[in-house]
């Protein structure tokens, strides 16, 4: 179960990192076109800046939510393992056997 949560968190972290790169690239593009004074270009730059501000806010919210979920999942897993150590050991052993059987078939 923890591996699934870790995988989901890792995927979300990858998505956040990609979004951060897109925002940085968009900011670089805005800086590169700063000298162009065409009214249409100025309007596009203004809209792009507004969208970047919104994107940064949403990115910060997504990162905070991601961290909170990861902490909650880790705490819940830790609590379950402490309350049910033998069940956890049995589940881990069963999973290990299953993986071993599947790898042994190759």
Give the mean pLDDT: 80
Q: What fraction of the residues are assigned to beta strands by DSSP?
A: under 5%
Kindly report how far apart the N and C termini lie: 25 Å
**Main sheet record:** none
String of helices and strands: HHH
Low-pLDDT parts are: none
Q: Give the domain tally.
A: 1
How many runs of DSSP E, i.e. beta strands?
A: 0
Query: What structural class should be given to the helix and strand makeup?
Result: mainly alpha
What's this, in brief?
This protein has about 110 residues and is mainly α.
Question: How would you describe this protein?
Answer:
It is built from three helices and no strands. It is elongated and about 70 Å long. Helix 1 runs antiparallel to helix 2. It is mainly alpha-helical and 106 residues long. The protein starts with a helix and ends with a helix. The chain has one domain. The longest helix has 45 residues. The model has no long low-confidence stretch (mean pLDDT 80).
What is the secondary structure topology, with strand pairs?
Elements: H1 2-32, H2 39-83, H3 85-104
Helix pairs in contact: 1-2, 2-3
List keywords for this structure.
91% helix, mainly alpha, elongated, 106 residues
């Amino acid at each position: 179960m923890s591996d699934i949560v870790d995988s989901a968190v890792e995927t979300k972290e990858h998505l956040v990192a990609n979004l951060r790169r897109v925002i940085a690239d968009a900011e670089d593009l805005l800086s590169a076109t700063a000298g162009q004074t065409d009214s249409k270009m100025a309007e596009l730059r203004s809209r792009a800046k507004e969208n970047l501000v919104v994107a940064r806010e949403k990115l910060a919210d997504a990162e905070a939510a991601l961290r909170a979920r990861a902490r909650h999942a880790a705490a819940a897993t830790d609590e379950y393992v402490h309350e049910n150590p033998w069940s956890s050991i049995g589940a881990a052993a069963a999973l290990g056997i299953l993986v071993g059987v599947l790898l042994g078939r190759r």
